[in-house]
C-alpha cells in the first residue's frame, strides 16, 4: 500500500492521532512527502471540521506544533471520574520559579533568587528533571552564569500555542487586580 489514494487530510489526521507528541508542519511534510502548503491546508480543514463537529477531540497548536487532544473540559471530567491522580503536581515554589523563568527568559539563577528572595537551586533542579525548563547555552566556555528558559513541554502542559499566547495571558492577568499578586511574584 503506497497511500497515494488517500487524501492528505486523512493522512494528517491519522498522523496526529497516532503521535504521542505535537508535530511541526515541516515534520508532517517530511513524513507524508507532501508540500508545506498541502499540509497547512489539511491542518486548517481538519481544525475547522473538528471544531464545527463539537466532538470530544480537537486539533490545537502548541508551541508552534500541532496536536490532537481531548477537549480540556472533557479531559477534566474523565480525569475526575476515572480518579486519575496526577503524579507531577508542582509546588508553590516550583510554580513561582516557572512563572519567573517564563516571563523573564533567559534568566539566571541569581536573578530568580533575587526576585523570590530565597535560594531556588533545588526547585530549578526539579524543574530541569521534569523537563519544564532547560539551560540556555550562551557564549560556551565563558564564565557567565547559566541562564534558564521554559521548554516545549511547558507549553504542552499548559496548553499554550506559543510564547506570544503566554505573553497575552500575562498581559491580561497583570491588567486586573489578580495580576498584582502575580506581578509581585514574578518581579
From TrEMBL:
It comes from the Bacteria. Pfam families: SMC_ScpB (PF04079). Keywords: Cell cycle, Cell division, Chromosome partition, Cytoplasm. The keyword Cytoplasm applies. The keyword Cell division applies. SUPFAM superfamilies: Winged helix' DNA-binding domain (SSF46785). InterPro entries: ScpB_csome_segregation, WH-like_DNA-bd_sf, WH_DNA-bd_sf. PANTHER family: SEGREGATION AND CONDENSATION PROTEIN B (PTHR34298). This is SMC-Scp complex subunit ScpB. It comes from Thermatribacter velox.
Amino acid at each position: 500500500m503506497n497511500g497515494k489514494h488517500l487524501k492528505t487530510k486523512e493522512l494528517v489526521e491519522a498522523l496526529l492521532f497516532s503521535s504521542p507528541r505535537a508535530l511541526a508542519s515541516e515534520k508532517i511534510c517530511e513524513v507524508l512527502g507532501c508540500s508545506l502548503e498541502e499540509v497547512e491546508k489539511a491542518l486548517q480543514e481538519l481544525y475547522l471540521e473538528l471544531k464545527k463537529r463539537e466532538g470530544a477531540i480537537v486539533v490545537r497548536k502548541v508551541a508552534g506544533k500541532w496536536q490532537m487532544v481531548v477537549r480540556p473540559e472533557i479531559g477534566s471530567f474523565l480525569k475526575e471520574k476515572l480518579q486519575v491522580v496526577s503524579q507531577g503536581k508542582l509546588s508553590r515554589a516550583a510554580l513561582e520559579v516557572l512563572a519567573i523563568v517564563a516571563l523573564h527568559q533567559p534568566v539566571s539563577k541569581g536573578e530568580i533568587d533575587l526576585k523570590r528572595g530565597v535560594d531556588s537551586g533545588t526547585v530549578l533542579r526539579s524543574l530541569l528533571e521534569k523537563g519544564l525548563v532547560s539551560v540556555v547555552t550562551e557564549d560556551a566556555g565563558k564564565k557567565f552564569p547559566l541562564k534558564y528558559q521554559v521548554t516545549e513541554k511547558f507549553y504542552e502542559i499548559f496548553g499554550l500555542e506559543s510564547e506570544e499566547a503566554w505573553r497575552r495571558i500575562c498581559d491580561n492577568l497583570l491588567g486586573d487586580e489578580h495580576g498584582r499578586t502575580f506581578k509581585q511574584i514574578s518581579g
